[in-house]
Every structure is written in structure tokens, then in C-alpha cells.
Design brief:
Length: 382
């Protein structure tokens, strides 16, 4: 193991500090500052800040030429109130590190600690702390940043802790592992009226009532079926919060999900047709916009082979688990740049689920995740 007991104590303190001060997507300024401060004594060859927002990239270089390996963690927390009695619980009302991004960030700091003491023989290692993973905007912003060309990798890797999976075991496979998804915001516009004379207005009540079951009826199958689709209504509103006004406007938010990107356009088209038809029948105006756009994650066979060898070397049990999963992951954008792969590291079969208010990243996962990633580095760049 390349980390000492003292390292583990300091890494846990770093993780707990991040956990106390969660920042949501696009607001990770102080989280990024804490990462940069922790990197300073480790003397990477280069540190890029404000990458694609508040992103941070640390570069460790070997003495000879070779491939560039990128390892990604996430900076952002969630807009969810944490319910915990832990000493390191969130100090920010309504926000919490309830997905483990504080832990993933700590794993990369553990890697930086090891690389600072024993540099790679050749090539480069890029440690990327990515902003805004939770809303799907961060990876696209990082890739669009002109400075990304300085760290463009030959392979990219990531992990995600996974409650429900036995502690310290891993799930890994080639091909799709996370679904594509996007948020569809539907706006229906008519005309308000006095509640005593609703016939003088134009209400979207019937249209919204028709659309919600019609949209979700397009859900079909389950992963790993390539024709899997899922439409989930996540929010709906109608009119004003008043008893004297018949409604004139309505809004529906729907998450659309497909196993692979190629299926998304068809699902969007079908949903838009339903909206247009419902609006036409009711005489309403309508508008559709898309948000939180995630590409599907697809693990490249070559990158998976590197992770398999590392997991085996570190004696971490692994299989395909329940992959692919329905959830989305912003890491999917990286496959447009280079072969990439993500594995899922078990946080315990009875551990609170991700995004639950009582979730907390298990600190004992840090050493396991760091060992696996370091094994990839040593096997590839030695």
C-alpha cells in the first residue's frame, strides 16, 4: 500500500472538510480552492484551475514520453438537506454531499499523494476534479474549455461508490453502463379567467391531465435491452396558488431516459408529438426545452481490460453486477475524446442509497479506490 496510516488520517480529515461545506453544481468555488490547497505541497507539474467552470486538473509527468491517463472525480454536492448526527455533517442548510463526490475527490488526492513520492516512469497522469456533474453540464464545459487540449488523455477512468453492492467489491463490464437522459420542460399557455367564469378563459387542465399518463406510457423494457426507454414525470404545476383564478398556464417536467444516445432522438420526437397534439386539441400555445443532458456511459474494452487487471492485482472481487444501470453519469462525455471506463465500488449492501438524506460516503473505500487506480497507473506507465 502506497499510503501510510498518517496519510489516511489526513485524507479522512480532508474528506470531512469537504463534506461539511457542500456546494452544488456551478457553485464549487470553495471546494475547488480546498483541492488546490491540498495539492500545493504535492508539487504536481501543472495545476489548471477554473477549467470548464470551477474544475481543477493536476498533471504529474514521467521522465519519458508515453500515454496520458486521466482520472476523474466530481466536485459538486446536491440540493438536499442532510439528516445526520455525524460530526462532519453539512453546515449548509439544504445542501449535502449525499452522492459521495467528496469521497471520490479524496481518492484522487490519495493518488496525488502517491504520485508525488513515486513519479511515473513515463507518460502523464491527469487528475481531474470536474464541476457540475449532477446537472450534466460539467463534462461538456470541461471539454469545451480551450485548455483541455493541454491535458487531452489517451485513456480516461472513473469510479462511483455504490450502495447495495457488497462492501469492497466492484461491478465492471464493457459496453453501456449508464443510460442517456435529459430533462424535458413543457410549457402550456392559455388564458386565465375568474374562477366563477372559467368558460371565459382557456385552461390547460385537461391537456396536462392527458399528457402526464401519455408521456409515461412510452416507458418500455429495462436495461440491458437496447430499446429500453423510460419517461418519468418529476414535476407539474397548474395555474396560480389562488382560489379566485382559473388557470391559464401549466408546466410539466419529464425525465427521458434511454440505454444509448441513438435512441434518445426518437423518444424526444414522440414526446414532442404528444405535446403538440394535446396543445392543438386544447387550443393552447406550447414550448419545449431540454435540460440536464447526459450522454450514455459506454466502457471501452481496452480501458476495461486495464481496470480488470488492476482489480485482480489488488484482489478486489468483481463481476458485471447489475450493469448497465438506469442512472445517468456525466462521465459519458469523456468517451467522445478517448477510450474510457468507469467501475462501481461497493459501499455495502445495507448502506443508505445515493441521494438519500442519511447517506454518507464510507471512508474505508478511499484506500481501495486509490489502490485500484494506482495499479492502473503502474501497469500502464511503468
Amino acid at each position: 500500500m502506497f499510503l501510510t496510516n498518517r496519510d489516511m488520517v489526513e485524507l479522512q480529515a480532508f474528506r470531512h472538510d469537504l463534506h461539511r461545506h457542500p456546494e452544488v453544481s456551478g457553485e464549487e468555488r470553495e471546494t475547488a480552492r480546498r483541492v488546490v490547497e491540498a495539492l500545493r505541497p504535492l508539487a504536481p507539474a501543472k495545476v489548471i484551475t477554473n477549467l470548464g467552470g470551477h474544475g481543477v486538473a493536476a498533471v504529474f509527468e514521467g521522465s519519458a514520453s508515453g500515454p496520458t491517463l486521466l482520472f476523474r472525480a466530481e466536485l459538486d454536492a446536491l440540493p438536499i438537506e442532510e439528516k445526520s448526527e455525524a460530526d462532519h455533517r453539512s453546515t449548509t442548510p439544504g445542501k449535502g454531499h449525499l452522492c459521495g463526490h467528496d469521497g471520490h475527490s479524496t481518492i484522487l488526492l490519495a493518488l496525488a499523494t502517491g504520485l508525488s513520492r513515486t513519479p511515473v516512469a513515463r507518460g502523464r497522469v491527469v487528475l481531474l476534479w470536474q464541476p457540475a456533474e449532477e446537472d450534466g453540464s460539467g463534462a461538456a464545459a470541461v471539454l469545451a474549455d480551450p485548455r483541455f487540449a493541454e491535458i487531452r488523455p489517451d485513456f480516461a477512468y472513473a469510479l462511483h461508490n455504490m450502495p447495495g453492492l457488497a462492501f469492497g467489491t466492484a461491478a465492471l463490464k464493457s459496453g453501456p453502463v449508464n443510460c442517456a437522459s435529459r430533462g424535458m420542460k413543457i410549457r402550456l399557455s392559455g388564458k386565465t379567467a375568474h374562477a366563477s367564469q372559467p368558460e371565459t378563459g382557456l385552461s390547460p387542465m385537461a391537456a396536462i391531465s392527458q399528457l402526464m399518463p401519455a408521456l409515461t406510457a412510452h416507458s418500455h423494457g429495462a436495461p440491458p435491452a437496447t430499446d429500453f426507454t423510460l419517461a418519468t414525470v418529476t414535476h407539474a404545476s397548474l395555474g396560480e396558488q389562488a382560489f379566485g383564478i382559473a388557470p391559464g398556464d401549466a408546466e410539466i417536467w419529464v425525465t427521458l431516459r434511454t440505454l444509448i444516445d441513438d435512441r434518445m432522438a426518437d423518444l424526444c420526437g414522440k414526446a414532442e408529438d404528444l405535446v403538440a397534439e394535446a396543445a392543438r386539441e386544447a387550443g393552447l400555445e406550447h414550448a419545449v426545452s431540454y435540460h440536464d443532458i447526459f450522454f450514455h456511459c459506454e466502457n471501452a474494452p481496452d480501458a476495461v481490460a486495464h481496470l480488470e487487471a488492476a482489480l485482480a492485482a489488488e484482489k478486489v472481487p468483481f463481476d458485471e453486477g447489475d450493469l448497465p444501470m438506469r442512472a445517468s453519469e456525466d462521465f459519458g462525455r469523456l468517451r467522445t475524446v478517448c477510450p474510457s471506463a468507469m467501475f462501481f465500488l461497493g459501499a455495502g449492501e445495507k448502506h443508505p442509497a445515493l441521494h438519500n438524506p442519511d447517506y454518507d460516503y464510507p471512508d474505508d473505500l478511499t484506500a481501495i479506490g486509490a489502490r485500484v487506480f494506482m495499479a492502473v497507473i503502474r501497469q500502464t506507465l511503468s
